[in-house]
């Protein structure tokens, strides 16, 4: 189903996959038909090797993209994992990666230099292929696609793990295709008019779904390595300008950074961009709005803004605004402090998905106007089959996301995570609100603040703020932070902890691990 649809889209398309070579800085065009030929070569190699799932590790090259479809042409499940981050010990990374692959049933891995030998030499027993040599563009024989055995997932997707132990969601071919098709229809992707541009990692559900949506639509797609964006975030704007991209996507921090340092931007044209998806982490209305305001002078239509909601358990997308909606927000007034907090409206469900708000023990009496605040529950055609090694997800059953939110006429609003809700003196606080206020303090790194509460049995109950800080006046910054949080959030922090830049733990996709921070702080305070 999925492999057939992608094959048809690739072979029928007259558009290209355009890939950035990080070393040379040059873009290379590859017709989608060529990408499909490469995928057939990879599938043929897979069928000559052991059965089991397929692993991918490395930067996004044309061969890497082809390997995704190659796995599905061979009827195999696919898992994509990140390469080593800066500062990692290579042999430890290789061992941990091989163990993770083996733990989810991967038997063959495709990778690139410099990861190849690391993965080959760790003694794991995995069959490791050089994707650059296997995924070549010449093919003399007709490939006979393998049917996917019943029950075989298309994707073994790691969950974000921001609130607990990471797990692996099993996504069927039907679920993946339904999600990609639903997003394609919702955004109204037109292969004759639209150009996608992305630097999102393909091991993340948002990056993979962006790519697959473009493939299924047969649209021209510009793909850059995440590391190239990380080295210089402003290059993203240059890529959008050069490609004349109409669709892009990124997590909130990327928009915030570019908005904050917009004075460094020059000579770009964003006039073609019609849909800029903001997802993968909570949307900061002020930061996103600043980006839109600053980029307007480069031709960006503010109505291109598209704050959205999704999770790995639903393949990716759950809600998104219709194109042209722009940034809409809902305001909540704190009756204690009269402070106003803004939450982005994340649009309505894509085709095939449903959601509802269900009361929880934390929110039974919580309301915002006529709207009831509760847990976001979802179901639909994009849902996972279940977590690997756990009971199957019952089709049609409501899935508890762990997110708190409410519904407006314009769509879903998400306030935070249930497990991360902070209760102080009977008041419920959303960490994102405290973090937004704390980030205003001079020297505190934007996007590097975590607000947590102590456990209920702690001798010193209250709010703790941990932030990465760089500046000469730590005492003054601490006093300013306490005053701001007390004034705007109505709670005096029991403790403020300043850390060196880069100290806060994050997931592989960059999300802060709030619960891990809380556990670490409690261990220190014990």
TrEMBL record:
Entry keyword set: Ligase
GO MF term (any one): adenylyltransferase activity
Top-level taxon in the UniProt lineage: Bacteria
Domain AMP-dependent synthetase/ligase: 18-388
UniProt-annotated stretches for the region Disordered: 143-164
Name of the top EC class for this enzyme: ligase
Entry's Gene Ontology cellular component terms: plasma membrane
GO biological process, one term: fatty acid biosynthetic process
EC number: 6.2.1.20
Coiled coil stretches, renumbered: none
Matching InterPro entries: AMP-bd_C_sf (IPR045851), AMP-binding_CS (IPR020845), AMP-dep_synth/lig_dom (IPR000873), ANL_N_sf (IPR042099)
Family: Belongs to the ATP-dependent AMP-binding enzyme family.
Annotated PANTHER family: DISCO-INTERACTING PROTEIN 2, DISCO-INTERACTING PROTEIN 2 DIP2 -RELATED
Protein name: Long-chain-fatty-acid--[acyl-carrier-protein] ligase MbtM
Gene name, Swiss-Prot/TrEMBL: mbtM
């Amino acid at each position: 189903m999925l492999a057939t649809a992608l094959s048809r889209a690739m072979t029928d398309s007259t558009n290209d996959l355009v890939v950035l070579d990080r070393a040379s800085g040059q873009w290379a065009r590859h017709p989608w038909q060529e990408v499909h030929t490469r995928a057939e070569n990879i599938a043929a190699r897979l069928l000559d090797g052991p059965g089991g799932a397929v692993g991918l590790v490395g930067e996004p090259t044309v061969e890497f993209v082809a390997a995704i479809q190659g796995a599905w042409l061979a009827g195999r499940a696919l898992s994509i994992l990140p390469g080593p981050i800066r500062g990692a010990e290579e042999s430890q990374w290789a061992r941990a990666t091989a163990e993770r692959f083996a733990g989810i049933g991967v038997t063959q891995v495709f990778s690139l230099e410099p990861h190849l030998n690391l993965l080959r030499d760790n003694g794991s027993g995995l069959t490791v292929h050089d994707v650059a040599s296997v995924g070549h563009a010449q093919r003399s024989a007709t490939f006979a696609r393998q049917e996917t055995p019943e029950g075989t997932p298309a994707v073994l997707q790691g969950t974000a793990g921001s609130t607990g132990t990471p797990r692996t969601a099993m996504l069927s071919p039907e679920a993946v295709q339904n999600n990609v098709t639903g997003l394609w229809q919702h955004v109204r992707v037109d292969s004759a008019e639209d150009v996608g541009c992305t630097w999102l990692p393909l091991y993340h559900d948002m990056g993979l779904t962006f790519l697959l949506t473009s493939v299924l639509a047969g649209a021209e797609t510009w793909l850059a390595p995440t590391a190239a964006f990380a080295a210089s975030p402003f290059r993203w704007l240059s890529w959008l300008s050069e490609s004349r991209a109409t669709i892009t996507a990124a997590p909130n921090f990327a928009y915030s950074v570019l908005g904050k340092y917009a004075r460094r931007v020059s000579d770009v044209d964003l006039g073609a961009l019609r849909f800029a998806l903001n997802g993968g982490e909570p949307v900061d209305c002020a930061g996103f709005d600043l980006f839109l305001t600053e980029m307007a002078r480069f031709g960006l239509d503010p109505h291109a803004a598209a704050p959205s909601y999704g999770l790995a358990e639903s393949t990716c997308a759950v809600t998104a605004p219709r194109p042209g909606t722009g940034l809409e927000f809902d305001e909540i007034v704190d009756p204690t402090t009269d402070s106003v907090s803004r939450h982005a409206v994340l649009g309505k469900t894509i085709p095939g998905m449903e959601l509802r708000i269900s009361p929880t023990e934390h929110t039974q009496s919580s309301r915002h106007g006529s709207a009831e605040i509760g847990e976001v529950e979802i179901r639909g055609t994009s849902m996972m089959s279940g977590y690997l090694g756990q009971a199957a997800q019952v089709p049609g059953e409501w899935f508890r996301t762990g997110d708190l939110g409410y519904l407006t006429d314009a769509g879903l609003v998400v306030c935070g995570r249930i497990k991360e809700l902070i209760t102080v003196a009977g008041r419920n606080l959303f960490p994102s609100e405290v973090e937004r206020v704390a980030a205003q303090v001079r020297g505190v790194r934007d996007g590097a603040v975590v607000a947590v509460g102590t456990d209920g049995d702690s001798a010193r109950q209250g709010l703790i703020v941990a932030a990465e800080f760089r500046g000469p006046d730590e005492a003054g910054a601490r006093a300013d932070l306490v005053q701001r949080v007390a004034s705007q959030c109505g709670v005096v922090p029991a403790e403020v902890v300043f850390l060196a830049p880069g100290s806060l733990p994050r997931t592989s996709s960059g999300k802060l691990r709030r619960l891990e921070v809380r556990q670490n702080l409690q261990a220190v305070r014990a």
